[in-house]
Amino acid sequence: MTFALHGIPVSKGIAIGKAVLISRAALEVSHYLVESGKEDAEAQKLLDAFDQVRLELAQLRLGLPKDAPQEMAAFLDVHSMILADPALAEKPIKLIRTQRLNAAWALTTELNDLLEQFSEIEDPYLKERANDIRQVAERVIKALNAQKDALNESDFLPSSEVGVESIIVAHDIAPHDILRFKEHAFTGFVTDLGGKTSHTAIVARSMEIPAVVGVRHASEMIRHGDWLILDGEQGVVVVAPDEHLLAEYRKLQTQVLKEARKLQQLKHAKTETLDRVDIELFANIELPEDAVQAVKLGAVGVGLFRSEFLFMDRKQALPDEEQQYQEYRRVVDLMHGLPINIRTIDVGADKALGAGGTDVSQTGTSPLGLRAIRWSLTEPEIFLTQLRAILRASAHGQARIMIPMLAHAKEIDETFRLIEKAKQQLLQRGQPFNPNIQVGAMIEIPAAALVLPLFINRFNFLSIGTNDLIQYTLAIDRADHAVAHLYDPLHPAILYLLANIIEQAKRANVPIAVCGEMAGDPTLTKLLLAMGLTDFSMHFSQLLLVKREILQANVGMLKSRLPRVLKAYEPEAQAKALERLIA
Q1: 428 Cβ contact list (under 8 Å, min separation 6)
Q2: Could you tell me the pTM of the whole model?
Q3: For a Cys staple, 253 with which of 14, 215, 370, 529, CB 3.0–4.6 Å?
Q4: How many CA atoms lie within 13 A of 164 on its CB side?
Q5: What residues are labeled active site?
Q6: Helical packing angle, 70-84 and 39-62, nearest 10°
Q7: Residue 310's closest CA among 324, 325, 330?
Q8: DSSP state, 462?
Q9: What's the pLDDT tens digit per position in 196-223?
């Protein structure tokens, strides 16, 4: 039966394909498709893990002390009986052989189905047995994870061999999971949770793959293998569409591709408004190779290089100075002399800094906790390592340092002290760097916006991180689905802060950019131009869309209409003022 689910569109485009369901339990394991011809070997890994757990349970049973509670032995016996049932392994092995899911993924898919069946049982005793099955499966997964170190890269299917009609469906996907999927040709993402500016959404946009988040109960209502239409423009997911609907959306998909080709014609046009105001468009990137596409689409530099993505989802230790230097230098070389703002590690909240599968950051998940520069200053050796690597890259081009989440003068003082220390360490080694490297600050905490002269006087450039500025000003955790609908870039308080920050920086002749998601939203381009913004930094996929708006704008006219927008506090009055400004 065809039905539609609604959520938050976070990455535009239309995807049509079969659902690849990642259950909530499966989020703890790796997900990849095994290479064709290695299905039997993968199935054997699963069988070996079952054998290992059987042996562990048998040893535990034999090792029970004489005075152990009788329930303990019964508990182990029940788990042994579950393991002895060949049906538990049959479906996962079938999934491995027919769909090439890796062993842990196949097992958690089967576990999810079994738990769903048990949830429909009314008998309390039988319903409780679901926990026994979950615990047994988790033991097997643990055994599989113990084998993980023995895997090599050849166990992962090259992206060229993956089917291109697959859409990931999950309760939630961490950013590092999406980076893992980046190696494969999935055509879209659907999640139960998430907001428009969660880091997961940002990474999905970086892959230029349609995505809809905040689709409540999607992972429960969609089944593995269901045909889906994912409309990243409207935030709609159509499940089990009929042939007529599929034909309509394939036609629409073709139109979207035609529009994208038209945009390509703007690549070489000068970025200026109708009244000849020059505008500079920079790119936000997650990985060095993103710089290639940024240059192709006409970016005049990298306004935000999210360096933390070099640290995430690592099986071994954090990257050392040499590894970081090589990655930063790659970006410098790929940008051919254009400026690159390398943001120092912004870890915390929904971005865990892992090594060997362990969270070594101890930052917690609170957006108000120990994250970004706060964390870096508590880990001075890791911070110094990164600073030295950036400084060394600056010897080859315009690498610049950008510091996130500053609020206090003492944080600024300590940051500059460590930058100077990193310089001295390189001088002692005799390694080259740019001694006059530019250092910028991100304005993303209301406190920083309210004491802007402190930042204007001490930094070479500023960049407004609207994603965090909005969440902190409105007291909304942008990763919390329960309040995601309250996240509003057009809230009068946000517009007032933005206009004030841009005006103060322009008056002081300090370069200022917007590098949050607002900069890449073409519906907001004219509003930011009206505020006097001339430097926009966004994901490269949005560059030409924003450029089209700039080429059609008259800044003088827009500025004359801005005061009415800033004075409008009631929604209806604001809507009218914005409509008049954009018209």
Answers
A1: none
A2: 0.67
A3: 14
A4: 2
A5: 199, 515
A6: 160
A7: 324
A8: E
A9: 766 667 667 767 789 999 898 898 899 8
